[in-house]
Amino acid sequence: MSDAAILTETRGLFRRKRLIAAALPAIVLAYLIYIFFAFGVPDMIRTADTKNARILVSDSYSHKVHVTRDNRDGSVDVAIEGERKGRYPAGEAPAWVTLGDTTEIDLENGHLITFGPELITYEIPGYGQITAQPGNRGVNAELPPGEVPDWINASKNRLSITTDAGRLTITRNRSEVFRYFNGWELFFFTLDSPFHGMGPGEVLSRAMAGDAAAIWRDFWTNKMWRHSDVAWAIFETILMAFLGTVGAAIIALPLAFLAARNFTPLGAARFAARRLFDFLRGVDGLIWTVVLSRAFGPGPMTGALAILLTDSGTFGKIFSEALENVDDKQIEGIRSTGAKPLQRYRFGVIPQVTPILLSQILYYLESNVRSATIIGAITGGGIGLLLTQAIITQKDWEEVSYYIVLIILMVMLMDTLSGWLRRRLIHGKPA
Fold first, then answer.
1. Stated pTM of the model
2. Do both 130 and 251 map to the same domain?
3. What pLDDT, in 10s, does the model give residues 305-346?
4. Do 239 and 111 fall within a single domain?
5. What is the DSSP letter of 145?
6. Residue burial 62-86, b: 16+ Cβ < 10 Å; e: rest
């Protein structure tokens, strides 16, 4: 081939490479543009409610105190998060609420709400006073002259005012004020506990004085946050993952010998074992969860069985491939001593595949702890159930963030523990 032909061929080769290098990013970009419109991202952005998003985020790290007036009899209740378990005793209220025939609610910075015998007023700095009279015919509201701002929603039967200081909602039968505070209120002690309102130092001194058991009891049986129930739910989630993972490993190991080519010469047996593994791992764990919950009812054991079925197929494939890659020389050495087949498997095969098997089992145990959270939401067990209930109610989003934090800590703990076990069992190192 002449030099000119070589030069022409080389230039053509570089031209094709440049075209390919330019075409690949263009194809990826075109695919991303297609996804952007096919999945309705513009519509999602247009319909997104940033106000609700801000409220959701603020609810995750704060709590609100409800001051509620029954417009029919004039009675006023004060409760944290509006729950009966967080209600102040009759006649008691926080310092910013003054109870009486006329209840005054000081939201600070000039925001003052008054629950009178007939009228309800809200003094808003820079805007003026809003007066409302709830009755059988609805809510008769008087606003300052001018255009109604968007943070006021007024209709015949309802008046809602949302400011930076708080929120006031008035209907025919009820008037309610929400005031937000940072932190998870009553996380340690409820209002009926003698340790409520104490600082860390005072609680510690009381514990040193002999009240440690009472302090722990009031914390552990907290009716608002249910720490004992949450701890049991965490235990159920870990137990679900452990039973499912270990049970799957126990079932998959003998079946893996049946599926390994170098241990089962009969092709029909290998084919049947491999198709069984494909069937078990081909059906997602969530599908197994739904099927088993219909068959056996809800509960953590149903979730463990779902993990067991899915991981039995996965472990069977992984274990059989590990068995097919064992070194035959070590097995031959054991055979030369006159060892029987079971002894050859025990001393010639198991030591070779144990590191791989343990590594995979520990990895899937760590992964199944996360999966057990979702499975528990379906089967009615574990921390997943509590998380789902908190999300569905859409009332106490600080509980949702609390459960998410616990799930993250649980996963971190399992990651650390599985890493330590992997080093200890496989490499023989204590740390």
1. 0.80
2. no
3. 999 999 999 999 999 888 888 877 777 777 777 777 777 777
4. no
5. S
6. ebbbbbbbebeeeebbbbbbbeebb
